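Weekly puzzle thread! Below is a chain. First person to post its structure in token form gets bragging rights.
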Amino acid sequence: MGRLSFIKALAEELDAEAVLARDDHVVVGVSGGPDSMALLHALVDLNTDCGYALNVHIAHLDHQLRGSESEKDAAFVQAAADGLGLPCTIERKDVGALVGSGEGSLEEVARRERYAFLERVCLQTGARVVAVGHQRDDDAETILHRIVRGTGLRGLAGIPRRRPLSEGSGIRLIRPLLRRDRRALLAYLSERGVPYREDRTNEDKSVMRNRIRNVVLPLLQDEVNPQVSDALIRLGEQARWLEDFFRETTHRTFETLIIARTDQELTLNAATLARKARIVQTELIRRAVASFQIGEQDLGHAQIVAVLDLITDPASGKEAHLPGGMTVTKRYDRLIFSMPTDEPRETIASEIAVHVPGRTLLPIRRMEINCTIREVDGPTLSDWLHRQHATQQAPPGRSRRVFEEWVDYGCVHLPLVVRTRSPGDRFWPLGAPGSKKLSEFLTDAKVEPSQRQRVAVLSDQLGPVWIIGHRIDERVKLTALTRTVLQMQARLVER
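Winning reply:
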């Protein structure tokens, strides 16, 4: 398949599956290897040959694992960005030091830091899409890797084409080349004359993933089934269909099982849960755990079975222990998922819509919020920026009756609502180096535990905009490009 045919077929596929919009702002993760370089140039070719208008921003994280080779990779990516006339963000992270300090395995830490970096770049640039270069052979290798390690049906589904970048995130992670194999990508790069970097650590057979790629799969192809990769992909596709079915059918079921939910505790109806098929129970348990932002990859089969056994056990008071310090307790006809905390339980309140512009009264909180939209010119904007900086430097949670903040109205995704904090809420406090859990922010801000349940969160469609009385989110801050300001004032009122 020639270059133009490759790109046109890719465009038809991406359009048919609604993987990305033609004018999306995309952060593309580029390592310098063949897969990511093929992805980068394919996105550029979609613009030039297929009528796309993608806004592409290159991102590269140097894991500092290969000495001068890592530095050369970063320089190579920067040169590629310069050659294409595209913006590029390069950061460096000492992943080896993090592994040495006990923060997880090399693969886990590298993956966590890479996606956290990509999220930061999105928030800094306003992008809502991250594209990475996984391809068809990666998918087959992933499925086989999970089979030999021991996996459930969910693991058989392989690599998803698209998903939220993180739980509850408004940023999408996409893999545009997941239907193309490595051979097709190399042919595309060759015809286009695109250079790429080879990572010699991919040949290290002490790494399980490399042994599967370089030894096990070739052996299976030669000795068992020449089409073994296709067979694995088909298996993954059917597992994904089953996963989609369970996701749809269990969503409403899960909500009906909830008896109570707080920031640190979830109570389900164990009697009703016990009447479900065991495979449905398993999916519902996964949903319960995921609601606390615990990665499902950390949840082992033995731990799931321990919770399943609690459901059917007539005794009360027994416990199972899950990752992240979570405890699951059976109390009569209730199954309680609890996270360790010294905080009082906080009942999640309903949302209240905020008028923009206009005045919104919150009688239970004894608060009113006034929103005003203002157009600004250069001198006025400089004054707003100065005031925002002064606000940022002020101590969080300062005690007063009136709170005021100013945000870039163009970065706000209406509608706005006021609510209490939700489990797993994350935001990027203005001036901070990155995002964090809201619970951690309140702890760092020394907000008394008894007051945390009263914190009001002003949110748009993408998440928290303003933790009222404390800090706005970095993504909505005023910049030199701001032309319209949303002025927000929250005032305590007497009963």
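Puzzle host: Confirmed. Bonus trivia for everyone else. The chain has three domains: 3-231, 262-338, 352-492.
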